Automatic annotation (TrEMBL):
Protein name: DNA polymerase III subunit chi
InterPro entries per UniProt: DNA_pol3_chi, PolIII_chi_sf
Entries under Gene3D superfamilies matching the protein: DNA polymerase III subunit chi
Organism: Parapontixanthobacter aurantiacus
BP-aspect Gene Ontology terms: DNA replication
Example GO molecular function: DNA-directed DNA polymerase activity
Length: 146
């Protein structure tokens, strides 16, 4: 069964949340693919990964010679030459290609709330999908919601 975690961004920017989640994924020993269609957003995310205080979150932009060795690969598509089992969709744009992964972390902001609700309803109707939603509190912590 595939797990899809919706993360509703309300306080922190996408690159900060992506770095926080990437740190957690790497700590479990898993590999991660971060997908964002916008090249500038991918660069912001990569920079945020390198700048996490006290952490070393090695990452690379997809298409490089060492893609397979990257624990975190940042890409515009869903190919995972690093063998990632988890995909983080940073721009909230769902693709059925995400279904190839064991787990998907789908980030969306307030402007995309209605789209995320519609996607939730669609995915909920499908078999073999476990859905969770996490909302950010004012203090920056996260809580699983309904």
């Amino acid at each position: 069964m595939m797990r899809i975690d919706f993360y509703q961004l309300s306080r922190d920017p996408v690159e900060a949340v992506a770095a926080m989640l990437a740190r957690k994924v790497v700590q479990t020993g898993s590999r991660l693919l971060i997908v964002a269609q916008n090249a500038e957003k991918r660069q912001e995310i990569s920079r945020a990964l390198w700048e996490v205080p006290g952490e070393f979150l090695a990452n690379g932009e997809a298409g490089g010679p060492h893609d397979a060795r990257q624990p975190i690969l940042v890409s515009g598509g869903f190919e995972a030459p690093n063998g990632a089992s988890i995909v983080l969709v940073a721009d909230g744009i769902w693709s059925e290609e995400a279904s190839r992964f064991e787990r998907c972390l789908l980030l969306f902001d307030e402007a995309a709330t209605n789209d995320a609700r519609n996607l939730w309803k669609t995915l909920k109707a499908a078999e073999n999908r476990e859905l969770h939603i996490f909302k950010q509190r004012e203090n920056g912590s996260w809580a699983e919601g309904a």
